[in-house]
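Before going further, learn to read the protein records used in this course. The integers have meaning only within a learned vocabulary of local backbone shapes. To see the layout at work, look at the sequence and tokens printed below.
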Amino acid sequence: MTNTPARFAFVKAQWHADIVDRAWDGFDEMTTDAQKDVFDVPGAFEMPLKAQQLAKTGKYDAIICAAFVVDGGIYRHDFVAAAVVDGLMRVGLDTGVPVLSVSLTPHQYQETDHHNAIYRAHFIEKGREAARAALSIIAT
């Protein structure tokens, strides 16, 4: 048995990066630098493919994916959110590497200072929760 620390990949979508990046902040607080690598993708839709690529390397004990999928008025955000979560689950099932989602899909988001502050704080906590979950999965 080896004493190598668990290794995590953290994938974050860059749509609303000012909010989504806070999940990385929360995750970063709970893990050591030696345990993690961070990757940016353009949006939530690109996360399952990146997660699959990372899982196939055999380098990571778990992959955490963070995104903020909001209703932009032009398309229905629910189909994007469903496709992303289904894709992430499939990656985990197909590869055996746990894939955790920190993907939030609020129904009433408005780009106001008030809402942005709420979601920034929420993503920090969700990042911490993802770290606790990833560490717990590895421990079991």
